[in-house]
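Box 3.1. Reading complex inputs
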Amino acid sequence: MKDQNKYMIEALEGAKMAAAQGEVPVGAVLVNGLTGEIIARAFNCTEQNNDPTAHAEILVIRQGGKVLGAPRLVDCDLYVTLEPCPMCAAAISFARIRRLYYGAYDPKSGGVEHGPRMFSHAALHHLPEFYGGIHESECGALMTEFFRTKR
Amino acid sequence: MKDQNKYMIEALEGAKMAAAQGEVPVGAVLVNGLTGEIIARAFNCTEQNNDPTAHAEILVIRQGGKVLGAPRLVDCDLYVTLEPCPMCAAAISFARIRRLYYGAYDPKSGGVEHGPRMFSHAALHHLPEFYGGIHESECGALMTEFFRTKR
């Protein structure tokens, strides 16, 4: 649990950088689950990249593939400050992520424990273990504050 | 219908290039729905890019965002040779694609008319119109042939 907190705090740093750049504040970290080494860090960049797919999870997976030289990130764990959306949940499965840890739950747009509950579908052949609610309040507060200032 | 055939034939060219490079043969074309201009072309590159998210649809959307200088591809139509998976279906919604045209149905891994049927979920706020089965047999034959040679 100590390590999980440590990595989520790293992901939170990413989320704060996103917010400072006017992006939806979501950050992610990819970790080698066997050694504990951080392989990649990313935060949501959809606006600045003009890329609707540039969610933190997609970017960290793409970086991870480059670093590891493989499209399948075997034995890697992914930490992200918000419950992944359905697009990212499917990408996490395709990437063969071992364990997914996430912060705030997203009842409106989440796709892991809400909406299409992606990991309950046979269309996805690899199912990661997943754990939500890690540093939930801090992760969620960033989102709440961001959307409050947008109104 | 004439135009839809024309664009799907372009997407099929992409799928054939993918097959020639040992990639799952799926091709996609992004079209300005108002002018008919082709904005971007892509094919599946997951293996050569070491990127599990590099499906034809994701790549064509990312290129489209670059070309248009916007993360929302308003009034654009997307042609792809295979029913999009759940990841791509969600990306198509985020990109605000106007109409989706696809070739072969994918009962096993598709996410539009199979599996999680992404466009039936409230988690996705934008719902494109979608039309499947365009040049279905030619699109499907490429896939069948590809996986036959892999066995």
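In summary: Chain B is about 35% helix and 20% strand.
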